[in-house]
Specification:
It comes from Thalassotalea insulae. The chain is mainly α and 189 residues long. The chain is built from 10 helices and no strands.
Length: 189
């Protein structure tokens, strides 16, 4: 009897990110690391690109994987490898932005952009480009939690990733949505 491919994946626990990391650390065999990179590289790169420019994102991504390569043992923090990888990527990006002196502390008002001027300036662009531009105008912490939520993390997982309390994360998400709605005006539908 042949099992459907979806069920075969359930029986093969060696392919979970946690198992891959565990096998990589215990054996040092790069094939397990390659499998982790294949599974998470694009989504981590997308996350980093959403918070920075292409060059900074590429540097932070490379530094993230170099840090993963140096892991000597698995611990309790590795029970959710996806969250652990995003935490490394986040901290690496913040370090890189500080090194480049591009770390942003200003609020949305500091950008001197309103929903009307943003809409007028980009009337001819498509809605996705307008949405992406609006996201980039958000303050770093609002943009970060919004992107984490778009990547599929729950509020509790975002709290763990950012080392912030539940109410802070909820507040940042609320302000991010409010600011996006104000910037996009009628284009947000």
């Amino acid at each position: 009897m042949k099992l459907p491919s979806m069920i075969k994946g359930w029986l093969n626990t060696a392919t979970t990110p946690e198992r891959l990391l565990e096998h990589y650390v215990s054996t040092g065999d790069n094939c397990h690391l390659v499998a982790l990179v294949e599974q998470f590289n694009i989504s981590i790169y997308h996350y980093l690109m959403s918070l920075s420019d292409k060059e900074t994102a590429e540097d932070a991504l490379q530094a993230t994987w170099l840090k993963v390569m140096k892991v000597q043992s698995t611990t309790k923090q590795h029970t959710n490898v996806k969250s652990w990888l995003y935490t490394i990527a986040r901290n690496t990006l913040i370090d890189e932005l500080r090194r480049q002196q591009k770390w942003q502390w200003q609020t949305l008002e500091d950008h001197h952009l309103t929903g009307c001027s943003l809409s007028r300036e980009f009337e001819s662009t498509d809605r996705l480009a307008l949405f992406n531009l609006a996201i980039m105008q958000l303050p770093f912490y609002q943009r970060e939690v919004f992107i984490f939520q778009q990547e599929g993390f729950s509020i509790l997982e975002i709290c763990e990733l950012t080392n912030e309390n539940f109410e802070t994360v909820k507040s940042r998400l609320r302000y991010a949505r409010k600011n996006l709605k104000a910037m996009l005006g009628n284009h947000h539908e």
